[in-house]
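Example record used in the benchmark description.
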Amino acid sequence: QVQLAESGGRLVQAGGSLRLSCAASGRTFSSYFMTWFRQAPGKEREFVACISPSGGATLYGDSMKGRFTISRDNALNTVYLQMNNLKPEDTAVYYCAARPFVCNRSPLQYDNWGQGTQVTVSS
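Model output (structure tokens):
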């Protein structure tokens, strides 16, 4: 089990950039696939990006490709989400999640979640 805590969300103008962080507790962080999801009001939780334990492999949702970058620092037990060229439709609560063995785009496959951080993009 790993405990997760997101931070970095705030109000930003369209076209701006933001970096989210997810700090994890526990000595097994480096063995987990780490994933970002987001959820806008009235919508289902959406896959954003996933990164392998070593950081050598990443996977992105279609609408995030080329704008978002996921990375991790295993020495700091932290995963990041760099978001560039933000759009109003990126407004959502962003969550990080962890699971072993493989990335998965379905939020139902994750048991470990943070509390989320709010990102609001104004037009």
